[in-house]
Amino acid sequence: MGLGAHRYTDREVTPLVLSQNVPNPHEGETVIPFTLLYAADVRLEIFDLLGRKMAAVVRKGLSSGEHHIQLNLRGLCLPEGDYPYQLQVTSAYGVQSLTRVMTLTLDTAE
Fold first, then answer.
1. Which has the closest alpha carbon to 62: 13, 15, 8, 99?
2. Cα–Cα–Cα angle for 68, 46, 79, nearest 5°?
3. Which of 3, 13, 36, 92 has the fewest CB atoms inside 10 Å of its own CB, making it the most exposed?
4. CA 39 → CA 42, 64, 65, 88, 102, distances in Å?
5. CB within 8 A of 86, min separation 6: which ones?
6. How many other C-beta atoms can be found within 10 angstroms of the C-beta atom of residue 71?
7. What is the β-pairing status of strands 94-104 and 40-47?
8. Structural contact between residues 18 and 100, judged by C-beta atoms closer than 8 angstroms
9. What CA–CA distance (Å, rounded) separates 14 from 102?
10. Beta-bridge partners for 8
């Protein structure tokens, strides 16, 4: 671990809870819920399976508590598939990142 890094144990409260996006799978519109223990700046990044960044959203100065980021990815013309998303939180207590995977499906209705 580098300087300033902290590994949280099962008995400690982590400063971030990242939930699975809803709905999942989705057709381009989804919501990513998360909870902050401390006030923080938040950066959400979405990647393809090759690790290329497809989109990013930044929210500064969020208070502690429950939050969500609503996404509309339809304009990006992404193909169907799995897309990892990472939420990075920067607070007075350091930086923490958590990652989940969302599944994008295409609307096949005519």
1. 15
2. 115
3. 3
4. 10, 5, 8, 13, 26
5. 44, 45, 47, 97, 98, 99
6. 20
7. unpaired
8. yes
9. 22
10. none
Q: Which two tokens stand for residue 22?
A: 């809803």
At 18 the pLDDT is 96
Residue 106 and residue 8: Cα distance in Å, rounded?
Answer: 38
3 pLDDT more than 80: no
Mean pLDDT of 53-76: 95
Whole-number mean pLDDT of the chain? 88
Closest of 80, 21, 17, 18 to residue 49, by C-alpha: 80
**C-alpha span between 48 and 59 (Å, rounded):** 22
CA-CA distance, 83 to 54, in Å (whole number)? 9
> 70: which strand partners?
31
